[in-house]
Amino acid sequence: MVRYLLPFLVFFSFLIEGTWFQIFVNTSAGGVEWVPRITLLLVIFTSIYRGPGAGIILGLFAGALYDLTYTDLLGLYIFSFGLVAYLCSYPFRGIKSSLLLQLSVVVGALVIFEWMTYGIYYVADYTDVIFADFFVWRLMPSLLLNTAAAALLYLPLQKLFIYIEKSEKIWQR
């Protein structure tokens, strides 16, 4: 039962991003776009704590949810989520015990993800927003929002991953 917990949490966070967040938060106040990436945060933390295999599989699952729901350019989010999960899965071992290091990895992953998806959309001519506007009106506000969310999710997710690890050790006996 524990093995289905992470995919369920990713699916649930995907639903929260697409419904509740859009209702309770004005996502485009004054031209600023606040884009929640709770699902991506779960994928990043999974990659940090569980390694590349679990992170990439969860990233591909989350990316497929995004691609099938939000975009006409199929494969963009599958590729982006999978690549970001892979890049976050190989930091050194000491990162699991430090909030500051984990937040640094999260910020770097968010910047890579947002920049990569913007770049692909720009090259494919799906957007005409110049990079300066993207940086000021979307990347920075979203980065602040998601960094705060990562700081709030740090302790509960750390406890969740410790619980999953203990449960797996019990089942392996």
TrEMBL record:
Protein name (record):
Rod shape-determining protein MreD
Tell me the compartments it is located in.
Answer: Cell membrane
Family (UniProt): Belongs to the MreD family.
Provide an example Pfam family for this protein: MreD
Q: Which keywords are on file for this protein?
A: Cell membrane, Cell shape, Membrane, Transmembrane, Transmembrane helix
Its GO CC terms are: plasma membrane
GO biological process terms held by the UniProt record: regulation of cell shape
Principal localisation = membrane
To which species is this protein native? Sinobaca qinghaiensis
Highest classification ranks of the organism: Bacteria, Bacillati, Bacillota, Bacilli, Bacillales
Topology in the membrane? Multi-pass membrane protein
Segments spanning the bilayer are: 6-26, 38-62, 74-92, 99-123, 135-157
